[in-house]
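Recap from last week: sequence in, structure out.
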Amino acid sequence: MGRQAANVTDYRALARARLPHFLFEYLDGGSYDEVTLRRNVEDLHAIALKQRVLRDVSNIDLSAELLGKIWAMPVGLGPVGLSGLYARRGEVQAARAAAAANVPMTLSTVSACSLHEVAKSGHVPWYQLYFVKDRGFVADLIARAKDEGSAVLVLTVDLAVPGARYRDARAAGSTLRRIPDLCTRPSWLWDVAIRGRPISFGNLEPIVGMRAPLADFQKWIHENFDASVSWKDVEWVRSQWRGPLIIKGILDPDDARQAVANGADAIVVSNHGGRQLDGALSSARALPRVVEAVAGKIPVLADGGVRSGLDVVRMIALGADFVLLGRAWAYALAARGEAGVAHVLKLIEAEMRVAMALTGCSNVAEIGEEIIDR
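Predicted structure tokens:
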């Protein structure tokens, strides 16, 4: 089986060894000088937890309610673009792992496997939506989410224009240039490039075609994502979708209040994993002010830099009701497929249990700012 992974950092190393260089850089990198990417991780690590002793923590309950459902823990798989290229039919594998762990998964608009394909596996994910200029196509995506039975729509609003990702640019190249790189990754080549066919952008096939190369796909993103979107467009989405609507990409308290006013059922405090506005606040730094602005009216989720169960506990102590994983599960998928994602979720659960026990918390509701040592 090769090298074993003890934590998410190990899975990152395994992913780097298995993926072609250009794919790993796409997954691992951020925008510009990656300042926000680093802040996401560093600011979480800088939060000191207050150790408490001689509390009865013999029964620890990780369960959490969100949008009318009880989940095994306050953790879900956030949307990760192109994750179906990290392992064979990767989004299907991840959905199975999430369902087995009783945590939600959100499928990206720019997934490799379509929502229909993932739903056919018996595990219908939440669906993440981007605004593109063709509103008819957006309406079709929403209708597809309804038809497939997605319980929640996650509207990502922080990609009006794509951030410049220099690591992607350095690693990009023609198919000819990638051949030597691909030949040094025989496991990925056999598993994904050969046995994982057809390779396409599942949800976008109607407009980008069945076999759009990555370079054309990035060009399509730049040409078709809509910089004119406003809160009126959120109102339009709300009119199209009657189920729970989560708005993802909130960092500013005023935007959080606007989300509440425009009918959001929850928000995600997120800077797109450090892939958009470089130099923006980390999610951990932005979270408390957003929580204060929302004032308990709707749930607040958070992502960005979460690499362990300790980080989950930190985010909840800062005020999050629920935490989404991004790169953490994608690294594991790239390394070991479904088994890797399942293992990461077990690691997160075990780490949360230890962190809660040693801070004197028996259930998620007891995790609050009083366990942060300031």
